[in-house]
Automatic annotation (TrEMBL):
Keywords: Differentiation, Membrane, Repeat. One of its GO terms (cellular component) is exocytic vesicle. Residues 77-203, 214-348 form the C2 domain. This is Synaptotagmin-17. One of its GO terms (biological process) is cell differentiation. It holds the Pfam family C2. PROSITE patterns: C2. It comes from Pinctada imbricata. It is found in: Membrane. It comes from the Eukaryota.
């Protein structure tokens, strides 16, 4: 990596774009994260119209494009972030380097009894819009308004596609009590940047355009065998779970509870996956339930983070069945009922306990 020019010193108030070529490929200088494995194509059972999120395919929101970085710094006073970009034609990989940030605002609107009000615990989420689901994130830097990461993120795609994407970086404050509020964001269209030449730049942060409660997603497969009176729930995997441990990542596991009307009948759980927010379980859980009972049955799926010395942390949940928590959950259940003896898989976005309790009596019944 080429040396950062003197314009990037901390005292500088004007963000300077330095598009000098940078060397991302010097493995003897810095460790580069391995390229992500190519995702397998989903089966037909995993694809349905209701799974597509319309907002992901709309044009990325613009954060007051008329404002320069200098004006954003003066108006919002949210600090700025130092990033590097380069596209390697031979491997068809865009490399994003999150280097550092400076002058982040101190925490606000948080419970001073639960959080150090003088310092943030910042980390970044990086994605290429409109694909928000395959975001990646940096480590958490403790108690600092001037974090340093120097972490690489790889995105494999053709150059023509990269030019149509917008780089989104969210800087979030790790705090399990506030569910990780957004400190600031950067939207950077890649169409006008010489990515093959590569370079690094400082970008001013803007306020978040929408408060997304990113608790993560879970892939479940449902299968009901009426002859055997058995309901099978395959917990396949989860991704981008909300991290509840600042150091060492998360140790997620899943609890699945069968509820008849509003009475919990039985709870089973998966194994615990260590140090990951993208766990792969591939575990099957079965319940005995007659066709008559199935009409009044709900399945509460809760994701937890295992702790050895304290109470496990709740991450998120969904409810499928009679008292489902939303249209996607009802759709998945109905697809299962219409495809008995055949497994039906679908991704679900996890919800907070409060959100689930507001719409599902089954969720209230499960602690």
């Amino acid at each position: 990596m080429s040396q950062v020019s003197g314009d990037y010193r901390r005292g500088t108030t004007t963000p300077i774009i330095d598009m000098k070529p940078i060397e991302f490929w010097a493995a003897n200088k810095e460790n580069v994260q391995p390229k992500q494995h190519r995702r397998r194509l989903p089966s037909e059972t995993e694809i349905s119209v209701e799974n597509f999120q319309r907002d992901l395919y709309e044009e990325a929101p613009s954060s007051e494009p008329c404002l320069t970085d200098e004006e954003k710094l003066a108006k919002y006073q949210l600090g700025q972030i130092h990033i590097g970009l380069q596209y390697d034609v031979s491997t068809r990989v865009l490399v994003v380097k999150v280097i550092e940030a400076k002058d982040l605002p101190p925490p606000y609107c948080l419970d001073e009894n639960k959080q150090d009000m003088a310092h943030s615990n910042p980390y970044c989420k990086v994605c290429l819009l409109p694909d928000q689901k395959n975001s990646q994130q940096t480590s958490v830097q403790r108690k600092t308004q001037n974090p340093s990461w120097s972490e690489y993120f790889m995105f494999e795609m053709p150059y023509s596609e990269v030019q149509m994407r917008t780089l989104e970086i969210l800087i979030k404050d790790f705090d399990k009590y506030s569910r990780h509020c957004v400190i600031g964001q950067v939207y950077l269209p890649l169409s006008n940047i010489n990515l093959i030449k590569g370079g690094h730049m400082w970008k001013a942060l803007s306020p978040s355009t929408k408060e997304r409660q990113d608790l993560g997603e879970i892939l479940l497969s449902l299968n009901y065998l009426p002859g055997a009176g058995r309901l099978n729930i395959d917990v396949i995997k989860a991704k981008q779970l909300l991290q509840t441990d600042m150091i060492g990542g998360s140790d997620p596991f899943v609890k699945v509870t069968m509820v008849h009307f509003e009475k919990p009948i039985k709870t089973k759980k998966t194994s615990c996956k260590k140090n990951t927010i993208d766990p792969v379980f591939n575990e099957s859980i079965s319940f005995n339930v007659t066709p008559q009972q199935l009409e009044n049955t709900s399945i509460v799926v809760s994701v937890w983070d295992y702790n050895t010395k304290s109470k496990d942390d709740f991450v998120g949940r969904i409810v499928i069945g009679k008292y489902g928590t939303g249209p996607h959950e009802f759709t998945h259940w109905n697809r299962m009922l219409n495809s008995q003896r055949s497994a039906v898989a679908q991704w679900h976005s996890l919800r907070s306990r409060q959100e689930c309790d507001q719409v599902s009596p089954a969720s209230i019944a499960v602690p």
